[in-house]
Amino acid sequence: MKFIGKSIKYGDNVDTDVIIPARYLNTIDKKELASHCMEDIDKTFVTRVQAGDIMVAGNNFGCGSSREHAPIAIKESGISLVIAKSFARIFYRNSINIGLAIVECSEAVDGIKEGDEIEADLDAGVIYNRTTGAQYKTQPFPAFIQKIIENGGLVSSIKAGVIK
Hints:
This protein is of the alpha/beta class.
């Protein structure tokens, strides 16, 4: 699995209420959720995010509630991958379940600046900052997680017969 995109960077403890505020949880429309993604922390996010961009964040990303709306909003906004120092456990699982690629790599987070062009090869476990030339090692995705993400999430993978 390879990803190439511009980085959009946030700090520590970005919670699910900031990713998608509770006032928008009355809809399951993915495009509507994406249109409000990150608006309480970054009003410019939805106007500058491009398909394929890579979100970079500090520790404890996705803390707060167990709502699946948060990774759905991120994925639907166009973010292809989230790189963080650490993720809240339920956010991590929800992300895989809906097909959002996420990876922990503290060194990459420390070395990536807002707007850097990033290339990530999660088969090989390598994150490359094309802007600075720096390279970072991370754990490659296990094959079964790759299949889930490639098929758009757990339910889609089961329906397609990829996961049994």
